[in-house]
Amino acid sequence: MADYNGWTNYETWVVNLWLTNEPATYDDLTAIAKRNEESYIKADRLQEYVASLNEEILDKAGLATDLLGNALAQVNWREIVENHEND
């Protein structure tokens, strides 16, 4: 059941928004989503990709790290990749 603007939650919606807002991240997202793999594997790849984009924050200890880590843990990564499999 969709809960925020047609997405599972705010965190999923905002990650999708940011990934689709720039050509480079959109291209990377669709490349991951179109891989010939199971959705859960693509979801893991996408989660790792987004973490790599935020390494500077996630590699440090602090409030921002804790908040970002918690928000990213709420993301429905599978929903994002399945939404872009046919882009």
Gist?
This protein has 87 residues and is an all-alpha fold. It has one domain.
Task: Describe the secondary-structure layout.
Layout: H1 10-21, H2 23-33, H3 39-53, H4 55-58, H5 63-73, H6 77-83
Helix pairs in contact: 1-2, 2-6, 3-6
What is the overall pLDDT average? 94
Cα-atom radius of gyration: 13 Å
Number of domains: 1
Give the overall form.
Answer: globular
Largest sheet: none
Binned, the helix content reads: 55-70%
Q: Number of helix segments?
A: 6
Structural class: mainly alpha
Q: Could you tell me how far the N terminus lies from the C terminus, measured between alpha carbons in angstroms?
A: 22 Å
Low-confidence regions: none
Element pattern in H and E: HHHHHH
Number of strands: 0
Strand percentage lies at under 5%
